[in-house]
Amino acid sequence: MNYMPGTASLIQDIDKKHLVLLRDGRTLIGFLRSIDQFANLVLHQTVERIHVGAKYGDIPRGIFVVRGENVVLLGEIDLEKESDTPLQQVSIEEILEEQRLEQQAKLESEKLKVQALKERGLAVPRADTLDEY
C-alpha cells in the first residue's frame, strides 16, 4: 500500500464505524461517510454517547457534520469487539439524569475548593476568563 500523507490516509476508513472525541468533551459514534483535507467529517447513523461511571447512554443524532478543528480523536471501532464492554447501557433519560447529578457534584466540589483557597488568601481565576484553547 502506498503512503498517503495527512487526512488522505483516512480515505480507506470511509464507510467504517468510528468513535470521534470532540474538543468540548462529547463523544460521537457513527459511520464515516466523508472527510476532507481539513479533517471535516460527515458521520451517518450517529449517536452521542454519554458516559457516567460504569453506565452509558446513546442519544441518536442522525447525520452529523463535524468541523475538523473540533476533532480531538478519531478511531475506528472493531465491530467484533464492540459488544465486549464492561459498561452498562441505560436509557437516555437515566444517563442524562446521572450526567446532571455528576455535573452538580463537580460544581459543589469546585465551590468548596474555591472557598478553601479563599480562606487561605488565594484566588482562582474564573473559568470564563480563561482562554479555552
Automatic annotation (TrEMBL):
Localization terms from the record: Cytoplasm; Cytoplasm, P-body
Keyword check for Cytoplasm: yes
Domain Sm positions: 5-80
Coiled-coil intervals, chain numbering: 93-120
SMART domains: Sm (SM00651)
Gene Ontology molecular-function annotations: mRNA binding
Predominant subcellular localization, coarse grouping: cytoplasm
GO cellular component, one term: P-body
Domain of life (superkingdom): Eukaryota
Keywords: Coiled coil, Cytoplasm, mRNA processing, mRNA splicing, Phosphoprotein, Ribonucleoprotein, RNA-binding
GO process annotations (BP): deadenylation-dependent decapping of nuclear-transcribed mRNA; mRNA processing; RNA splicing
SUPFAM superfamilies membership: Sm-like ribonucleoproteins
UniProt cross-references to CDD domains, sorted A to Z: LSm1
Signal sequence, renumbered to the chain: none
Any Pfam family hit: LSM
InterPro entries (alphabetical): Lsm1, LSM_dom_sf, PTHR15588, Sm, Sm_dom_euk/arc
PANTHER family: LSM1 (PTHR15588), U6 SNRNA-ASSOCIATED SM-LIKE PROTEIN LSM1 (PTHR15588:SF8)
Stated family: Belongs to the snRNP Sm proteins family.
Subunit and interaction comment: Interacts with SLBP; interaction with SLBP occurs when histone mRNA is being rapidly degraded during the S phase. LSm subunits form a heteromer with a donut shape.
Function: Probably involved with other LSm subunits in the general process of degradation of mRNAs.
The name this protein goes by in its record: U6 snRNA-associated Sm-like protein LSm1
Species this protein is from: Nothoprocta perdicaria
Phylogenetic lineage: Eukaryota, Metazoa, Chordata, Craniata, Vertebrata
Gene: LSM1
